[in-house]
Amino acid sequence: MWHDFLAALALVFVIEGIMPFVAPRAMRQMMEDVARQTDRSLRIAGLLSMAGGVTLLYFVR
Fold first, then answer.
1. Residue 27 zone, left/alpha/beta (φ > 0; ψ -120 to 50; rest)
2. Do the beta carbons of residue 19 and residue 26 sit within 8 Å?
3. Residue (of 24, 22, 23, 46) closest to 34 by Cα position
4. Number of domain units in the chain
5. CA 41, CA 16: separation in Å to the nearest integer?
6. Range of the domain at 30
7. pLDDT tens sequence across 10-38
8. Nearest-5° angle of CA 18, CA 21, CA 25?
9. How confident is the model at residue 1 (pLDDT cuts 50, 70, 90)?
């Protein structure tokens, strides 16, 4: 179980690092745009992201 968790965490780091490596200026602009969002819209985006991840994990497993 720990092996799978650490592998998933490593993939998160790889995926998160792609955008700043490939397009740092676009990443910075995106982060500024996100900083201007309301707490409610960020929470909704987080909820949708988690629900999508759980759904994808259900179908993969």
1. alpha
2. yes
3. 46
4. 1
5. 21
6. 2-60
7. 999 999 999 999 999 999 999 999 999 99
8. 115
9. confident
